[in-house]
Amino acid sequence: MKHRLALTQGVVWMMPKEHNNKVKFEKASQCKNGTVSRVCFSTPMGDLEMKFCPSGIHTLHRLSKDDSDFSPDIWTKVSVKQAEGSSEVHSHVLSCLDWLKAFFGQPSSRSLAEKPSLCFGNRASGFYPLVWETLAREVPFGTTISYGKLAILCGSPGGSRAVGTAMRENPILLMVPCHRVIKSDGQIGHFSGGKSVKQWLLSHEQNK
Ligand SMILES: [Zn+2]
To answer: Whole-model pTM?
Structure first.
């Protein structure tokens, strides 16, 4: 399902070709459910790239691989920075946009945002997607859980190392909230995108 762009949403769609701040997208790929498209959002934690197929969101991650350039700005408005392909806005883009606005916005708006559909593509079965789905479902905004407790929730007591690996492999930042998984002694533990990003996200969620 696709929607025409609503100008009132303040969405910047299809950046002009001459725009020199353009993000270079890689070649489009395929999911068993259809073509995978890409979009880039401006957010308070920097630019986030999302990939999605007709079935749901595949990936959401910071464009930067580490936190060396991490300079969060809470005044940055969540908006579509750039999209590839057609001038029509896909419903997954709109639902992700709403969700991100709620995540970074006022607590009162948070419960109103519906969780976008996720698609794990050809990784839809096995232990990792079970961990991702359990985490997304059971560990809400402003809370944390230890690797060990998450392993128990997934029916695998003693599987905290495998949970740690699942977190490293997490394809969908924020919506699969791997930043909420910390060590049992309270230390924040590893984060693939850099510890300062994880620390900032945890602080952001404490200031709810
Ligand atoms: Zn898919």
So the answer is: 0.84
